[in-house]
Amino acid sequence: MKNLLIEKVVCGPGHGISVGSLGRYGWEQDVTDITVKNCTLEGTDNGLRIKTWPSAACTTTAAGIHFEDIILNKVSNPI
């Protein structure tokens, strides 16, 4: 996954916004140049996450991931 823009999303309740889960399967591609901006999370379990597996099956790279202008209200685990 590359060159993705996520913008003006309002979510909640739920799990929040996650990039991943990365590294579980050997066939996964790198994740690069992802922008999440102008989003609001309300009453979610998590805020913003980059999720990876501790014992990864591959060497997937996550790079160039940007979060900007994010509003978090009543989020249990913001970052």
UniProtKB/TrEMBL annotation:
PROSITE patterns: POLYGALACTURONASE (PS00502)
Pfam family, one: Glyco_hydro_28
Organism: Brassica oleracea var. oleracea
PANTHER family: PTHR31375
GO function terms (MF aspect): polygalacturonase activity
Family, per entry: Belongs to the glycosyl hydrolase 28 family.
InterPro entries per UniProt: Glyco_hydro_28, Pectin_lyas_fold, Pectin_lyase_fold/virulence
Protein name listed in UniProt: Polygalacturonase
Disulfide bond listed as a keyword: no
Keyword Hydrolase carried by entry: yes
Active site: H15
Locations listed in the record: Secreted, Cell wall
Keywords tagged on the record: Cell wall, Cell wall biogenesis/degradation, Glycosidase, Hydrolase, Secreted
GO biological process: carbohydrate metabolic process; cell wall organization
